[in-house]
Design goal:
alpha/beta; six-stranded mixed beta sheet; about 15% strand
Length: about 180
């Protein structure tokens, strides 16, 4: 029994080390096509995103980010279909806060930084704009399992539904989270 326990411990430690290993950088920086334009090439190299991290000679932590320098959402796609959307800062020039259940920025809705995961279905049915293009997450984390033929359920949404998880599917809306009472 003791030998089995020791063997199991060794196997678990080895597998844990394999799981937490950092992947090496992959990809190569852009080629220096024009030697007189080193600043542009350096700028492109520093802004490139590589799977293993983005240090590439920069000061530690200075450009190892996943994101943009602009105020725009970050979309994740598979097979050219939207799967997730991380909102930028909404309610400022050029980034209008979308309404949820007819409530908008003037009503206290601010979904800046909220994260949506799920299907890219239509807002009002199959002939309407997609949810990712015109809307986004209703709370900090929004899981949308809606089919492509029905609208995302907004009824029941309240402006205090911020720090929590919203689930929408099958014409239902559910929220789990805290309610801040001022």
């Amino acid at each position: 029994m003791r030998k089995r326990f020791i063997l199991l411990t060794i196997v678990l430690v080895q597998s844990n080390e394999a799981l937490i290993a950092q992947q090496n950088q992959t990809g190569t920086p852009p080629v220096n096509i024009n030697a007189t334009n080193n600043n542009i090439v350096r700028d492109l190299t520093e802004r490139a995103w590589y799977r293993g991290g983005n240090q590439l000679g920069a000061a530690a932590g200075s450009n190892n980010i996943f994101g943009t320098l602009w105020n725009s959402p970050i979309y994740t796609q598979t097979n050219s279909v939207n799967r997730s959307k991380l909102n930028g800062t909404l309610g400022i020039a050029g980034a209008i806060q979308y309404t949820i259940n007819s409530l908008g920025f003037a009503n206290g809705v601010n979904t800046s930084g909220y994260f949506l995961i799920g299907n890219n279905n239509q807002v009002g049915g199959p002939l309407q704009p997609t949810f990712y293009n015109t809307r986004g997450a209703f709370s900090m984390l929004h899981l949308n399992g809606q089919s492509a033929t029905t609208a995302v359920q907004e009824f029941g949404y309240r402006t205090w539904m911020k720090t929590g998880i919203t689930l929408t599917d099958n014409s239902d809306l559910s929220y789990f989270g805290v309610r801040s009472i001022d």
